[in-house]
Amino acid sequence: MHRVHIRTYGCQMNERDSEGVAALLRAKGYVVQDDEAGADIVLVNTCSIRGLAEEKAIGKADHLLRARREGRGPRLVGILGCMAQNRGAELLDRLPDLDLVVGTQRLRHIPDHLGRLLADPAPARRIDLAEEAGFEDALPGRADGRQVAAFVSIQQGCDMRCAYCVVPRTRGPERSRPPESILAEIRALAAAGTREVTLLGQIVNQYGRGSQRAEGGLSPFVRLLRQVAAIPGIDRIRYTACHPIGYRADLVAAHADIPELCAHVHLPFQSGSDRILRAMRRPYLAERIRRLAASLRAARPGLTLSTDVIVGFPGETDADFAQTESLFRELGFEHGFLFKYSPRPGTPGHALGDPVPAPDKERRLARLQELLALRSSTENLRQIGTTQSVLVEGPDRRGGRLMGRTENERRVILDGPSSLIGHIIPVHVTAAGQTYLEGKPA
Ligand code: SF4
Question: Which of the four CATH numbers 3.40.50.11740, 3.30.750.200, 3.40.50.10540, 3.30.413.10 does domain 275-379 have?
Answer without folding.
Answer: 3.30.750.200
